[in-house]
Records
---
Amino acid sequence: MIVPRLLDWFDERLGAASFAKKSLRKVFPDHWSFMLGEVAMYSFIILVVTGTFLSFFYVPDVRPVVYHGPYKPLDGQTMSAAYASVLRISFQVRAGLVFRQIHHWAALVMTGAVVFHAIRVFFTGAFRKPREINWVLGVMLLLLTIGIGFAGYSLPDDLLSGTGLRIGYSIALSTPFVGTWLAFLLFGGEYPAPDILNRLFVLHVFILPALIAGVMGAHLAIIWRQKHTNFPARGLTNDQIRGPRLWPRYALASMGLFFVLAGVLALLGGTAQINPIWIYGPYHPITASGASQPDWYMGFTEGAVRLFPGWEIRAFGHEIPEPFFPGALMPGIVFGGMLFWPWIERFFTKDTMQHNLLQHPRDVPWRTAVGAATITFLGVLTIAGASDVLASSVDISVETMTAILRWLAILLPAVALFVTYYLCRELHMNDLHPIKESKVTTVRRSATGGFDTTEKEGGGFESVEERLGL
Amino acid sequence: MMLLLSLSILAGIGLLVLYALGGQVQLEGILLFIVLTGIGFAFILWSKYLIPPEIVTEDRGERPSPEEERIAAEQAYVEGESQLTRRSVLVRMMLGAFGALGLAAIFPIRSLGPSPGRSLFQTAWRAGLRAVDESGTPVRASDLAVGGVVTVFPEGHVGSTDSVAIVVRVDPAELRLPDGRDQDAPFGNVCYSKLCTHAGCPVGLYLAQYHQLQCPCHFSAFAVLEGAVPVFGPAARPLPQLPLTVDQEGYLVAKSDFTAPVGPGFWNRGDGP
């Protein structure tokens, strides 16, 4: 066999046999929610492959050209070379459109997978000691993924992406003290400076992918070293791990996940139209269209910028403009809170133990409640990012819709906080707890010839606390 | 599984043929889907049914390291450090050199953009410049009917992003402009910057019934008759006005630049004109 001979070859040079043995026999805990991180990683691989193909044709240049191509409605129009190159990818490069659409769908799926992965890790307490480093790296990956997505959908230089960039510039400009310089250095001058597409291109195809690959590599190396967490189960202690071995069962299943994901993305990319930039038209800085929505993961900032009232701080001859609060401060607080969450939680729990067993969300009501309130808040903001579309679909004015959404953004998170807290407490106390398992009924023949029946909680635990060793 | 993999093979060949024939986006997506999910489900079925469902439980191994290991590691570091700290002047100079290098490395960031200077405070509008539309045609005071709007630029600067302005023709009797601007809207032609004071989107929507200009991005609304003060939405400041007059041939001309810096706010906006 070729592989054992290859192993010998490497072992004679690197002494790799022990590592290979340990790796192939590595135990991987199995649960559907543990796949979300894998989905994110596999989406990234698909993005690199499709993105490399697209980068061969894309031109990051704002210089105007006159379009003469197969898409007749835009024939003879003046547009940037960048926009024209994306039209070329879509209509002239063979297999270009399917690659472009798979790329965009994969980006939406990747951000979704990263977000749900973070939610899983948060609600099950997987970030607790010893896994705080990986939590921090994960939050960085979330920010990098959102950033690379924004940079990517700004590249085609269509009317929608240009409007998004303009708002980004205004938020940069609104930063206290350094905003003016910051915006000029980031964008290469007063908006719309000609350098911006080239910079976004370098960010999108080099700097951010390299950072994501690096941080993801560290994230994986650490999970490899620390080993994955397990849900609590009968007979499993904190010092043990349970699951199938990497080789061959887990590896095959994981490869299967990759190919199914790639297949679904291909189907979406082929049959579900996404970001049809030829309908939006080329970007001209003096026009903007209504119903401008960003990709879903930027929706919460768009919603916040729409809902926040027109408050500015002007004092001592200086000004903190309105977009700073919803566009920079609010995301800063949300992601900052996320980044430091393991330490915020430890401040209250004083818990310094090593944890390899996960928690059920109901067993930590206050954390679950804070998480639910945050998700509700961001959810309302995301919906508010499409307030105009929503208003016209239920036939009320944008003004009324904005007023309603402002109240919802404050009230619903509070409701979510209390409802989740009390619901978790109720669930924690009642008998349907997944850890307590079903009752065990023992039937025994008695000396008199009858039957004695005794009932007992499964596993012999009387309460959740006892099961968790609290 | 055999069936799945045969489908994959057939669809793969189909893709080759399709590409050679010129490609078609929906079919490409569907065939790729069949190839990839065929392989994927074959893998999953294989791992689920053809491999013994062995679930192992084993020890996680030691972490943290044994106490003596940790002490040895600390010892190794401390020994090396003591050899360095004996040369404390050299250590400080080394840190100084790194500091200087770091400082020097920050400066090229300055090359990324020009100095903001006065660029945010002024536009291309000057006293006496005619207002022209997007095609470069000068606009007369009588061109617009009451309720009409036109996007204008300073003559010679069509397309200039910060100079873009919007002229709205209203009934002069209804105008209630701020003090000192009564003479700036000849025959009811009142002119404002087209850049929203919130996030800089072009304020393109004129709601004639309410005499409001509305921004399509975040729906800030500005009252045209009252000097474009914000009446709804996230904008906090009025649209800067462009004082207009009429030249001898009846064309609209600017009396000066805008009354305030245009577009979104910034830290030192108060230093402006």
Note: The longest strand of chain B covers residues 149-154.
---
Amino acid sequence: MQIHLGLIDYSILIIYFLFVIGIGFALKRYMKGSTDFFLSGRSIPAWVTGLAFISANLGAQEVIGMAASGAKYGIMTSHFYWVGAIPAMVFLAIFMMPFYYGSKARSVPEYLKMRFDEKTRGLNAISFAVMTVFSSGISLHALAKLMELLLGWNYNACIALSAFIVLVYIFLGGLTSAIYNEVLQFFMIVLGFAPLVFLALKDVGGWAALKTKLVPVATSNGFAPGTWTQSWAHMNAPSDNPMGIGWFGMVMGLGFVLSFGYWCTDFLVVQRAMAANSMSAARRTPLIAALPKMLFPALVILPGMIAIAIHHGEANKFLPLGSDGTPDYNLTIPTLLARYLPTGILGVGFTALMASFMSGMAGNVTAFNTVWTYDIYQSYLAKNKSDTHYLWMGRMATVFGILVSVGCAYLASKFNNIMDMLQLVFGFVNAPLFATFLLGMFWRRATGHGAFCGLLGGTLGAAFFHGLAHTQGAEIGIKGGWLGQKIVFQSEMSQNFWMAIIAWTTCFVVTIVISILTARNKTDEELKGLVYSLTPKPKSENEPWYQQPVALGILVLIGTIALNIIFW
Amino acid sequence: MNFDLRLPLGAMFAIYGLMLTLFGFATNGQEMYQTHSLGINVNLRWGIVLLVFGLVMLGLALKRKKS
């Protein structure tokens, strides 16, 4: 598959690069100390941190992946938003942000040190730092591979160019630069994809016609007619829907464990809220993000549903086919871009796609340089240096992080298995995290030893479960089952969600048991501002209702429930 | 921090809007609109949307600067 860009499309792309780098240069003079570089001096207004909050997560994996999933599974993909992300974002805003922002912790691992102890922080900081550079490398690899395929660009040149641009703007302007560029990217995605979705939907004849056209897609795959257009109606048994999962595994695994774990504890997103200019702005950040996020399925999932309807209608000739004869779902968005956007507007859509890859990488790099500098370098390698020294270190960590990312990109291009293996291990490490934070924030009796053992236990529990679980028809090994195939799942997704549930539960139980067996290592006085029952409630600062976190949170939840019911 | 993000944001989209609007005018009626965008001159129409968005952002930023 090929896309042909004209002169005007290239000009649009180049103008975007100039603005991105220009913002870096404009911000350089504000970077006076390490707080400016890593936390934007806690001075960013809520609408900016809010849009950056979604954008940091709106990397290409999200845009490409959600469209792919929309084609493959239909509207059930919306559970990632309306069950997963949104409730977690509301929870973060209302209940968790007061501790993150109020404790003045500079990173999520630092909060763990204040709440628990050094070893819990170390475990989290090191695993997080490794994960971010690898994710950034995977993002880079995916970008270069796609550009090579679509435009015939040189893989090496593409890696060098994107790594260089990200390096320049973060090196100069730190987190502020990343946040500002994420807002640019947010508008690029929305304004670049809106005409695409409009044209594609008009072409299939609107929503009602799309529903009719998705009926044969469902029936030809052996499911009930409405499976692709109803989000909940076919979730009683895993065999009723293409995701191969029942409602309990979905709500608990994806909703409660994985989404809360990601949105509430991943420093990549939480860092955006920590940069806000007040407690109220920090709490509003995830909520301002949640408002557009609720509607994002229309921008990223709907195109996938349209594409599969067209594909089916055109006798399986619309999407490119993979070697096994099934559509290459990852090419859904590029195929639609090539089909519906003429040169000119194509440049905007294409730049939006490229921007999402780069901001995915930038988000990881800024989270990495902060955790590296504060939680690893300052804590273990060079204590009590001047602030200027840490600022310098932050810049060096940026260079280092990007070089390692480039290395990882090449690793990914050479050894696909290593990347699958790493992502599997990341899954083991991430799944239990939310249990630790939940107990840490809401149970003052939780101890440092308890948290540390809980995290390790949860990770081991996940690995052990993975060894015993198995997806029908999958190979034994990296896909599970290496300790025997005791538990059989309908789909890999279902297996992953249940693994998360097991990891979370193990961590939760182990943390409680060990905490009760060990002595408290923090007094009530030390835990003030870190634990719910010991922290004075944040006062509402006489704001109008639409600026109050609780009111906004309720509004967001009502909207989400309504969307779930409409598309039930 | 005395740096209003709406300034570069508005400027960038105003430039994009202007480019697409002019390009849409120049290419009006060309075959690519039939083959791709259902006969709609999407460059012209969306160009105007982007231009308006960009100018509104610029306007807000400049208004704040004055006060």
Note: Residues 7-414+537-566 of chain A form a domain with the Sodium/glucose cotransporter fold (CATH 1.20.1730.10).
